[in-house]
Amino acid sequence: MKGVEMSVSKMTHWERVTAAVAGEAVDRVPVSLWRHFPESDRDPARLAEACVAWQRMHDFDLVKFMPGGTYGVEDWGATSADVGSLIGARAVIKPGVTAAEGWPRLARLSPTEGQLGREVKALALAAEALGGDVPILQTLFSPLTTAIKLAGDRVFADLRRRPDLLEAGLAIIAETIIGFARACLRVGAHGVFFATQCASYRMLNEPEHLRFGVRYDRLVLDALAGESKFTMVHFHGNDVMFGQVLQYPANMMNWHDRRSELDLGGAMSRFGGVLVGGLNEAVTLPKGPIEAIKQEVRNAIAQTKGRRLMIAPGCVIPIATPESHYRAVIEAVNEMPH
After folding, report:
1. Cα–Cα distances in Å, from 128 out to 10, 48, 277?
2. I need a surface site. Which of 6, 279, 286, 312 has the fewest CB within 10 A?
3. What are the sequence ranges of the domains in the chain?
């Protein structure tokens, strides 16, 4: 295809991802797909085994480690359960904060104890099994996203009525996330996947997001900047505040590009790192047909001319997605001219 470099020697996963981050030619566009493992994610050994098996089956260029999505709030008293989600995500069924006065009282958690400690152990086991052959990123949720998981939609009342109390809690949450991330980096993670579910006009206005979102997101991201080799920011949802989140210190960005007003091609001039996406994880990838999946891959490569791109879903893939659809993604990448 016009614009895609030819005759690049075969690369390792590390070489391919590093070259993509640098904007250099690659032997083929890197690929990473991720899903939850609800049957395994309550036990560190089983979660590690599931993530490693997933990687060994498909040989992706980057591993997004997949702890249960409520891991970050359970040590603060939130109760979660498997609610039969299509993507296998757990849900909080009992909040850990029920009054604004609870925010400044949040404990300063140790990353080696409780649920956080179990997730560090799971990451360590997976990193050991993979032996450094492929970059592995631990999943983090932004401080405000964590607050919403912890307390539900009362957060929006608190940030408007008792902002001082909420901000005290967000500072504790950010400190805890930094400590957890550093513990994961020490035991084998090569970077972080930082997810915010709050950078949306449907939830906040721009001044609110700057104060309660960006400020505490940057506390985490700036603290990890010299330690995380690969930092991928995922901004979740619709009507995203792209003007704010595209300025985050990261070398990879992931969003629902197939369902957003900003596509991969439009993002090329607005972000200088790797654009991670191209696949509609809600419709095309789980439902097919195979040719439609391959066409999304081809179109993503055409939008970016094969530079600064990693083929990936816009978010977590439904757990019932057929294996043949994952293979179709890899086949489509390999079928493109190199």
Report:
1. 25, 10, 28
2. 6
3. 13-335
Low-confidence ranges of the chain (pLDDT < 50): 1-5
Q: ∠69-73-79 over CA atoms, to 5°?
A: 85
Peptide bond into 135 cis (omega under 30): no
Predicted confidence at residue 43, as pLDDT, reads 97
CA atoms within 13 A on the CB side of 326: 17
195: left (phi over 0), alpha (psi -120 to 50) or beta: beta
- Alpha carbons 18 and 16: distance in angstroms, whole number: 6
State the Cα–Cα distance between residues 78 and 146, nearest whole angstrom: 11
Q: Where are the beta strands (DSSP E) in 16-65?
A: 63-64
Strands 63-64 and 136-141: parallel
CATH 3.30.465.10 fits domain 13-335: no
Q: How many CB atoms lie within 10 A of CB 272?
A: 12
Rounded Cα distance between 323 and 157, Å, is 43
Tokens of residue 97, six digits: 């904060």
